[in-house]
From TrEMBL:
Keywords tagged on the record: Coiled coil, Metal-binding, Zinc, Zinc-finger
Zinc finger (TRAF-type) residue numbers: 73-119
Record organism: Rotaria sordida
A GO MF label: zinc ion binding
Official protein name in the record: TRAF-type domain-containing protein
Domain of life: Eukaryota
Length: 163
């Protein structure tokens, strides 16, 4: 079965068979157990056993979860390897070269979107970033005006309800 996760496991590590999902044949992700003691990934149970309406409960033993999060994986976006599975989300958010990101000036309406490794090139030519001080002031004034309009609309509504 092909992996539905944004990583692949490093081949040279021994993975305890008790940590393997019986459906996807990979180490558990969000592990659950069924009433009949089958163990697997929550997504696998949901997808493959939905017609059987099997009730599941989370496996909460921290040692099992820590063992699973310690497994080494390779990011399928940038191919960096030997990342702890538990650190993959942080890798994607902070350092993955192929992760999809927005411009640092997205908060002031720069529409650029792309992969992290192209961000520095974009920032050097971004027309929004040099305008940040002026745009930030305009955006703040706009927000304050909207808040004032909201307050005035409430006052108008109260006034018209009384009369």
């Amino acid at each position: 079965m092909t992996s539905k996760h944004p990583y692949v496991y490093m081949a040279d590590q021994q993975i305890n068979p008790l940590l393997i999902c019986s459906i996807c044949q990979n180490p558990f992700v969000d592990p659950v157990t069924s009433e009949d003691h089958r163990r697997g990934c929550r997504a696998c149970f949901t997808e493959y056993l939905s017609s059987q309406s099997v009730a599941v409960t989370p496996i909460q033993e921290w040692i099992v979860l820590e063992m699973l999060n310690s497994l080494l994986v390779e990011c399928t976006k940038c191919n960096e390897n030997n990342i702890r599975r538990g650190d993959l989300k942080q890798h994607e958010e902070k350092s993955c070269r192929r992760a999809f990101v927005l411009c640092k000036a997205a908060d002031i309406k720069c529409p650029w979107q792309g992969v992290r490794e192209e961000l520095d090139t974009h920032v050097k030519q971004c027309v929004f970033e040099p305008l940040r001080p002026v745009l930030a002031e305009i955006i703040m004034e706009n927000k304050q005006l909207k808040e004032k309009i909201d307050r005035l609309e409430i006052l108008i509504k109260k006034f018209t309800e009384r009369n």
